Amino acid sequence: MAAEEGMRTLKNPTTIAVIGTGDMGSAVGGALNRAGLRSVTALANRGVESRRLAELSGIENLGSLRAVAQNAELILSIVPPAAAVTFADNMAAAMVETGTRPVFVDCNAVSPATVRSIARVFESIDVPFVDAGIIGRGPRPDADPPTRIFVSGAQRRSLLDLKVPELRLIDMGHEIGTASAIKMAYAAERLGVRAELMKELELSQDEAVRRMRARVPYLAAVAERFAGEMAEIAATYEAAGVTPLFHRGAEWVFTELATTSLAGETRATLPAHRSLDVALAVFSAVLDRGQRS
Length: 293
Description:
This protein has helices at 23-34, 48-57, 65-71, 84-98, 112-123, 157-160, 178-183, 188-191, 194-204, 206-215, 223-239, 245-257, 276-292; strands at residues 15-19, 38-41, 60-61, 74-77, 103-106, 129-135, 147-152, 167-171. By secondary structure, the chain is an alpha/beta fold. α3 (65-71) crosses α4 (84-98), α9 packs across α10 (206-215) and α11 (223-239) runs antiparallel to α12.
């Protein structure tokens, strides 16, 4: 990725495109409007519900992606994950056709690898790119806490500098993929974003965090037994014609935990307190060892 120094940054955008206008996109567009900005979209070939939500939120329909490219200074991609790459390609083509270069922000629940591949599309045509991950429900005036958007990339100030009270914009640094990693919570420790993820969970899922801190540090002691149970559940589901993959994944996790230095503990020898940080360091070391072997 290009270095931050010398990169262009959009100052004070006033017209922001939101594509598409489902539940989240329409809510974001409404929040932009309430903050005094102009939100626009392209509803060609879109369904009745997307059109209805856009109208209710006051999002202006420009019709086509070409018109969006010509009028918007910032484009927020909020589409189904499976459509993220195709939409990015189509939007890039519209920019090439019109000779315009608005900032493109991918806000979708895609992997860091996917978002980096999308970034390369825009970098190849000299379009500023921002990686973003939206956490929480769609913004609304009375929401507490506000909707969080994690933002990364050299051009991130184009989004971070927006003054939208219903959005809390969180700086994740210059590396594309870091913001998207927050959405991929299962790999947070290995992706280097666990601290930010824990802050988010403490804000939005405090009860789950308390259970995590109480139970996860001691899972290795029962991991071998649980691995066997997960295998049996998987086999039962498979015999019933239901996918066994979820429980096969759980079996893999417990099998790995059973190889850690904490696995030999018993109820009698478990320490009275072990922090989540200590336990995750031990668990991660086992995964690192497996990758090197």
